[in-house]
Structures are given as structure tokens and as C-alpha cells.
């Protein structure tokens, strides 16, 4: 250990997404290659000597305690735990985090050191993994509110690869087998199905960790929500969701030194008649078992909605991934010009 194939794979995966900015400390980590990366893991991150680093991924992450702060992280999966190497700027981003991150680094603030925090989720504490719609993100849940993290990969391939690696690592854990299921009689088997809502598809791993995938009803619920949020934007017609993707809305900041642009996380939903941007809560739903009250905000909050018929043109950037798209809509909102012209010209 480690094999040449594994070190090469870790080196290939160790690339920060070009559109996201990280601190100097994480840039240093992203510059490590091959054995240097493995040695860095064992020297600075690993908690046990015989731990093996199996997978590396760069992703935005959200914590249950701080659902409004999305932060860039280097996610390292070993045979013992999942490590989230975080930007040090995250600690100062929200004053309510002082109890969450018990950390006193005031002595280091003016020195030449670049600090990173490492959040550790031990595999033995892992209870469930919720995969988001179309594998755009996944949520890892432990035994308390401190142990819930969502990785916003915005990429089905990265999500799929991480889940596969996690399942492989969990298979190595020695856990006591689950008790034998009790044979149910006919009435208990079919009597409890009166909720009217199909449960999400669950896969219970041999390590007793649940992997929960969305079912087709979730798309139906989303279509119903979208139709409800429209407020007369469209006619009453069957609504088909054609595309669901986690993206960023680009807001240019005028007058700044580099004329920078702010990226605001949004969920883009395309239907047969409209284009919607939603602010989505990726961390609070479905409710964890210990939650005593529902979250303060809805899962989907409408940020913007436009009719496809008002779309004038789409401008595409020439760079490869991530692709920048600009949607240009007509200024006249909710007015059917053709209908008005027809009435003017031909009377009744």
C-alpha cells in the first residue's frame, strides 16, 4: 500500500474546480501529487496508523448547524473515516459557529501559517446516506446534528464514484450482524400501508448503513410545488420537469478591483413552458430522526421564473466545463403581443 494505480487516481482527482476559490492552505493540498499526497494524509490528517486513504474529492459542503454557509472542502475517504478539510475562512463566516467549532487560533492569525480545519466523521458513527435528485448531491448523516454534512458535487459522476467507494470501505467494517427479521403476518404486512405516500427507495448495506435514493414520486411532488409557485405565470396545463440541475447564478460586482463575479447557488428547473431558479435547502430534508421541529424554511423557495416564450436568445461561453449560459428575456412580461395585434387589426 498504496498501489501505483491508487496514487495515480488520487493525483488525478486532486483538482480544485476552476470556478471556486479556496484559501492558500487548500491550494497547497491541491498541489500535492502521488506519494506526497499520501504522506501528507498520514502525517497531518489520519487518526490511526494503519488507515488507508481510498478516495479524494473536491466539493462544496454544507453543515446541518450552519445551513446557509456553503464552503469548499477537500473530502478524503479512508478505511476509518470521512475527513472534510475546510477553508479556515469558514470559521469566521458565521458568528453562531463558536459552539460548533471549539477553536482558539488567535495566536496564529498574524503569522505566516495558513490554517485549515478538519471535520471528521467516523465510519462507525455513520447511519445513513441520502442521495439527492439526479445524483446532484448527497447527505451523510451520523448520530447527532453535529454529524450531518451535505456534499454538493453538482455532478452525478462524482456522486456515484464517492458512493461506490464508501460502500466498498464500509464492507471492511466489522460490525455485529443485524438480528434476524421477525416473520410478519398478513395483516401487519399490509395494514400499515395507509400513509398514501410511497417511501423512498432504501438499500441497507451489510454494515447497517442505509443508502436512501429518491423515488419517482419525488419528481411528482416537485412538479406540484413548481406549479403551486407559479402564481399565474403559466396556463393550467400538465407540467413536465425536463431538467433539474444545481447551478450558480452569476452576479457581477461593478466597481470592484477585478470586476469580480459572485456565484450564488441555485437550483435550475426547466419545464415544458418555463425556466425557474429556486433556493433549495439541501441539508434539512428529509428530516433527521432527532429533529424536534421542522426547518425554518421550505425545501424550495422560488427566486425567479420566466416563460420560455419570452426567451429572446441564449449566449454560450466558449470555455469547457463549467459552461456559462446567459438567458436573455424580452422586457415585456406576461403580455401576449400576438393576441393584442390580432385584435387591433381585425376587430372582433
TrEMBL record:
Residues 241-347 form the Nischarin C-terminal PH domain. Residues 114-178 form the PLEKHM2 PH domain. GO terms for molecular function: kinesin binding. InterPro entries: PH_domain-containing_M2, PH_NISCH_C, PH_PLEKHM2. It comes from the Eukaryota. One of its GO terms (biological process) is regulation of protein localization. It is found in: Cytoplasm. Keywords: Cytoplasm. One of its GO terms (cellular component) is endosome membrane. This is NISCH protein. It comes from Halcyon senegalensis. The gene is Nisch_1.
Amino acid at each position: 500500500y498504496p498501489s501505483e494505480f491508487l496514487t495515480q487516481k488520487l493525483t488525478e482527482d486532486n483538482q480544485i474546480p476552476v470556478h471556486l476559490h479556496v484559501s492558500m492552505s487548500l491550494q497547497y493540498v491541491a498541489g500535492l501529487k502521488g506519494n506526497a499526497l499520501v504522506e501528507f494524509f498520514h502525517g497531518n490528517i489520519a487518526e490511526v496508523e494503519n488507515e488507508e486513504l481510498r478516495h479524494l474529492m473536491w466539493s462544496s459542503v454544507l453543515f446541518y448547524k450552519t445551513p446557509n454557509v456553503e464552503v469548499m472542502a477537500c473530502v478524503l475517504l479512508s478505511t476509518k473515516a470521512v475527513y472534510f478539510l475546510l477553508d479556515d475562512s469558514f470559521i469566521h463566516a458565521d458568528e453562531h459557529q463558536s459552539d460548533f467549532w471549539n477553536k482558539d487560533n488567535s495566536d496564529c492569525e498574524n503569522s505566516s501559517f495558513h490554517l485549515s480545519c478538519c471535520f471528521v466523521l467516523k465510519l462507525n458513527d455513520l447511519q445513513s446516506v441520502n442521495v439527492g435528485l439526479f445524483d446532484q448531491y448527497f447527505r451523510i448523516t451520523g448520530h447527532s446534528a453535529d454529524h450531518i454534512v451535505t456534499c454538493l458535487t453538482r455532478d452525478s459522476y462524482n456522486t456515484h464514484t464517492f458512493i461506490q467507494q464508501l460502500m466498498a470501505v464500509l464492507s471492511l467494517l466489522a460490525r455485529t450482524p443485524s438480528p434476524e427479521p421477525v416473520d410478519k403476518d398478513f395483516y401487519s404486512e399490509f395494514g400499515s400501508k395507509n400513509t398514501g405516500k410511497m417511501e423512498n427507495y432504501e438499500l441497507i448495506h451489510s454494515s447497517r448503513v442505509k443508502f436512501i435514493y429518491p423515488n419517482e414520486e419525488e419528481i411528482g411532488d416537485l412538479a406540484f410545488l413548481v406549479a403551486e409557485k407559479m402564481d399565474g405565470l403559466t396556463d393550467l396545463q400538465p407540467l413536465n420537469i425536463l431538467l433539474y440541475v444545481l447551478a450558480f447564478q452569476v452576479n457581477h460586482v461593478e466597481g470592484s478591483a477585478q470586476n469580480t463575479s459572485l456565484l450564488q447557488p441555485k437550483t435550475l428547473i426547466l419545464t415544458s413552458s418555463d425556466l425557474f431558479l429556486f433556493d433549495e435547502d439541501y441539508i434539512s430534508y428529509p428530516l433527521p430522526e432527532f429533529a424536534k421541529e421542522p426547518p425554518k424554511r421550505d425545501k424550495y423557495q422560488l427566486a425567479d421564473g420566466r416563460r420560455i416564450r419570452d426567451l429572446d436568445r441564449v449566449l454560450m461561453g466558449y470555455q469547457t466545463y463549467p459552461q456559462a449560459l446567459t438567458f436573455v428575456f424580452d422586457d415585456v412580461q406576461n403580455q401576449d403581443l400576438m393576441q393584442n395585434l390580432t385584435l387591433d387589426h381585425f376587430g372582433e
